[in-house]
Amino acid sequence: MSDGSEYPDFPRVAVGAVVVRHQQVLLVRRGKAPAQGLWAIPGGSVRLGESLRRAAEREILEETGLTIRAGEPVFTFESIHRDHQDRIRFHYLIVDLVAEYICGEIRPADDASDARWFPLDQIAAESEMAAQTQELLQRLFLDAP
């Protein structure tokens, strides 16, 4: 049964959490399209009636096994992917929130094929990172004074 994320009738709202601990950022390797195989900010779809913060906390727990406390939005972008017939295959409006690590050990699951802490000073060199993740982390950590 499809959750409606592929070939949707309308854009889907998704959320991500930017979790930093000890000068490292939490990233997941996406196990499914649209960013399959790329390192990205962990997160996923917002459920009906769920706040952005609660969705971020739930998704990070499901994908990584970590408990976080989600904060304010820091980055918003659209992710629109078309198939070879120019039909909309995926359309997400993604809101990334800053988040605080609370506890837990990384256990990749759900939509994540891998998860790990990436040193902030190695982000620019990572070639298998989603473009929006690269842009967000550059803005937040590498362009800062």
Give keywords.
single chain; 145 residues; alpha+beta; Nucleoside Triphosphate Pyrophosphohydrolase; seven-stranded mixed β-sheet; 2 helices; 7 strands; 17% helix
- Second rung of CATH, namely the architecture: Alpha-Beta Complex
The portion of residues forming beta strands comes to 35-45%
Query: What is the overall number of helices?
Result: 2
As a percent range, the share of helical residues equals 10-25%
CATH superfamily: Nucleoside Triphosphate Pyrophosphohydrolase
Count of discrete structural domains? 1
Count the E strands.
Answer: 7
Assign the structural class, choosing from mainly alpha, mainly beta, alpha/beta, alpha+beta, or little secondary structure: alpha+beta
Integer-rounded radius of gyration: 15 Å
Largest sheet: 7 strands, mixed
Q: Name the overall outline.
A: globular
Description of the molecule:
The protein is an alpha+beta fold and 145 residues long. It has a single domain, classed as Nucleoside Triphosphate Pyrophosphohydrolase, CATH 3.90.79.10. It is 17% helix and 43% strand. The protein is built from 2 helices and 7 strands, in the order ββββαβββα. Strands 1, 2, 3, 4, 5, 6 and 7 form a 7-stranded mixed β-sheet that branches. The longest helix is centred in the middle third of the chain and has 13 residues, at 52-64.
